[in-house]
Each structure stands twice: as C-alpha cells, then as structure tokens.
Amino acid sequence: xxxxxxxxxxxxxxxxxxxxxxxxxxxxxxxxxxxxxxxxxxxxxxxxxxxxxxxxxxxxxxxxxxxxxxxxxxxxxxxxxxxxxxxxxxxxxxxxxxxxxxxxxxxxxxxxxxxxxxx
Amino acid sequence: xxxxxxxxxxxxxxxxxxxxxxxxxxxxxxxxxxxxxxxxxxxxxxxxxxxxxxxxxxxxxxxxxxxxxxxxxxxxxxxxxxxxxxxxxxxxxxxxxxxxxxxxxxxxxxx
Lengths: 119, 111
Fold this sequence. Notes:
heterodimer; A: mainly beta; seven-stranded mixed sheet; four-stranded antiparallel sheet; B: mainly beta; 13 strands
C-alpha cells in the first residue's frame, strides 16, 4: 500500500522558513515524479513544485520561484520542500503527491501538513 | 489556464451530473495521442482522490458511474447517477505543462 506522510508544518512569522518532509513507502520511490500541492483555506488546489525521479529536473509555480526549493533523497525514500521568505499568502495545507509512472497525474496523496504564516 | 463550469450544482439523487473543463491550449500530445487531463474528487476534510486520467481512464477502484470524455481543449466529467457519497468538490488538472495546473473546482451537492 502506498503511503505518503508529511511532517514539518506549523506556525511561522512572515519572512521565516520551514522545511516540509514527506516519507514515502509502498512503491519504488526512485522511479516516480513527485509533486507538492497546496490548498489555501477554503480555496482550490495549486501545484507548487515537482521533481523528476533522479532529482535533476525541478519545476516551480511562479509565485514561489526563488523562495522554495524541492529536493528528494532516494536512499531515504523522502521528499522535501524548503520554504524561505515565507509570506502570509503561503498559508495552506501542503500535500505530498505521487505521479503515475512517468507523468504528473497524481494518483496518491498524503493527508497534508498545515503551514500558517502569521505575525 | 483551466476553466471549469459550473462553479456549483445541486441535483437530486439518481440524476446525471455533468461538469465541463476547458483548457486555454491544446493538451492532446500528438506523438502518443493522449490527452493530459485528470479529474479529482475532494470530500470535506480529506485530500483529493484521482478519479480519471488520460481524460477517460478510470483510476483503480473508481465506480463506473464516473466517466470522462473530450479531447484537445474541451473535457467533461459525468456522474451517471448521483449518489449521496458523491457530494464533493471536483477538480480537473492538466499535466501537459509543468508544473501542472488545476481548474477552480466544481462543488456538487444533493438537492
């Protein structure tokens, strides 16, 4: 059974930093694209960043470019999102997701980790 | 940009629900003849669940009352006979470009 478990969320002040982690199990992690998706309170879904299986290709939504960094450690079956210079508008639940083989349709989702940016 | 319609709909149990999704550009990849379009269902307080990928392929375990159709820029999700457990917000997503983008969501309720 595929499992994706996020951790690292919490309350942070504007301008601060947080690092989200996602522990993956139940599938060959090193073979799949992975994506972080966020959902602001009461709002829709937004793909924040994704990364290819070997970690050499990374893509970001414009609103987080230069502030967020996606990475992975295939030896630990783990995905990360380093979030710097956080803004109030980054407040959201952040989901770790797995793509179908070779593509970015998201067939498995974690339960999400809440990030609140507030003074 | 992915645009869904309607934003919400309320139907009686057993009725047919139809949600449309329009992409601002063609998401049919000619080399493999596949439309890079997925549909998701999100129930209150839960993460989204993939229903459909490649525009019309049902994900594992998804009831056959859910179906997807369309090609190019115009797509449809149909629930053939609405059940109480189908109350949710539905999202389309294109994965032709990266990062992928979602529609704004359609809320489905029981009348």
